[in-house]
Amino acid sequence: MDLLEYQGKQLFSKHGVPVPDGRHAATAADAVAAAEELGYPVVIKAQVQIGGRGKAGGIKLATSRAEAEEHAAGIIGMDIRGFTVHEVWVEKASEIDEEYYAAVVFDRSAKQPMAMLSRMGGMDVEAVAGQDPEAMRMLHVDPLIGFQDFHGRRLAYEAGIATDVIRPVGAMLGKLYDAFVAEDATLVEVNPLIITKAREVVALDAKVTIDDNALYRHSDVAELSDLSAEDPQERMAKERGLTYVKLDGNVGILGNGAGLVMSTLDVVAAAGGRPANFLDAGGGSKAEAITSAVEVILSDEKVSAVLFNIFGGITRCDEVARGLIEAFAQIKPSVPFVVRLDGTNDVEARELLAEAALPNVHTEATMLGAARKVVDLAGEAGRSPAGQERPEAEQGDQNAGLEAPRS
Amino acid sequence: MAILVDGSSRLVVSGITGREGTFHSLRNRDYGTQVVAGVTPGKGGQDVEGIPVFDTFHAAVSETRANTAMIFVPPRFAADSILEAENAGIALIIAITEGIPAHDELRVYNHLRRGSSRLIGPNCPGILSPGKANVGIIPAQFFKEGNVGLVSRSGTLTYQIGNELAQGGFGNSSIVGIGGDPVPGSSFIDILELFEADPETELIVMCGEIGGSAEEEAAEYIASSVSKPVVAYIAGFTAPPGKTMGHAGAIVSGSQGTAAAKAEALEARGVRVGRNPTQVAEIAVEILGARV
User: Fold this and answer.
1) Predicted ipTM?
2) Whether residue A189 lies in the annotated active site
3) Could you give the domains of chain B?
4) Which of A120, A348, A365, B75 has the smallest CB count inside 10 Å?
């Protein structure tokens, strides 16, 4: 779960990481009231999960009530690369002397947390890494021992930051590490970490990701919401306990097991189609779960055909077939379905489907055959520009098709 | 031969008294696995269809000489259960549980690697050595004994590929699910090393997916240390960045962890990568057929 900047800053405060004084606002009037209370100058910052807010005009300095009114009204409701701004963070403007970069990340390869510090902050880290790889200093921390003072000192000295702030910046890294562990974060990033004119260390931004699997022990975080990031289908799927990711195509997909569903998306794309979603119905899916999943898939109006790809292990194919039959009884889908059922009780499942004779439901014997069939049925709208002639060696390029802006 | 589990495995199941724990423990026993004990605190002295239940791993080990543990408890209790099994001296711990917090997995991993216990999973379907033992939830009916070692981050995808191999006339030495979480107890490299040393295994199929860099690391290892042919598959070419695709570990972060980068790394080291599960089985059959 990715937190908005202000939510991250509130977590930082809890762990003793200094942040500028600020207020959250969802209307222009509230933003102005917050600015008046804080005293000018203030910075009004759009709260959305996307980088490049400043460039897009989502971060503005206000030195008076009139400016606060103008900027708050301009920012709330604006669109930043597909994300509508529903809320802003109004904070006291800081006098910046220096801008650094600090982070604690989850290094999957080393299987240890990694603390990072650079004296070049306030810009795109990947760009800095390209320009001056030596500027970014990194240090693994043994999770059984935790962050020690020496970690902070070593990073601070090696990063070559101003000598008068070696100690406070090192201490700040320790607090960020504490927040990383205590909040079950997989990412804590501060860019920029500033040194003010008064030589104080302050986190001017906050990017925090919390492990979804640990939300049960962070009820305060679990309750936070982000209106700009919520897709209606994803919200509906979440409420129903389904693992669903919305994509941009028109071929609805349901399978069992994350790997098999990912593979199904790839096979559909290789056949020239564009998947509309990822949906893992999970192990041991019962008929009701299948019916519920079909409702979620079809609530996306772009879906023009649906593929079921099931390899039954613990999941019984006959249960999946029953779910599909029930879904047809309840919601009478108007789009064609292609069904490939293999594995446990597949013969019974095919018999059930034959008996039910559902309109516009096609059974296919293999995964590849089913992918080709559903792409055909989804029609021209479902084809990527190169269509079925696309060589398989180019599969990796298919991301490009999926990222096309929504029409 | 096979790797990790066989006729000498003596299995103790943590969470045996739960609905899923009971169901799969009995299925494993029906397959022929020696299921010697269960552990559920507070239920010591009871039994599950004749399998004795103990309050602690320590009691289960001292009473039954269990040497392999399967973890079937809910996520919030799983890390504790793995650490208890290790503390009781269990050499091989197989964690099926999905949804364990990543920081718990970090602590467990960093503790276990200092000792001698091996962890498989979490969030995995377990290990099947056809004809010998089944520990976990892999549907054994699709697999037979043979010479293909299979290691995978995904369950159902493994069944799909294994089934296609079986249709091509080939069976498996062992099938190992290493799981879909960000911090697996055992990596591809750990399992490749075991298959390389296993005389029964003649070819290895490795099934990866987006997220992390375990496949790239495996590519380097294969080039330096594996003499047997390896065929790979990578799922998730169409996964958008920043989205978790079902498995907690299946996420492309920025430009990191893409399927294309993994397939390229493997191919650059001479590993053949199938573009879909059917093609993986075809390549495997082609290589094995040529060896006969």
Assistant:
1) 0.93
2) yes
3) 10-120 (3.40.50.720), 143-291 (3.40.50.261)
4) A365
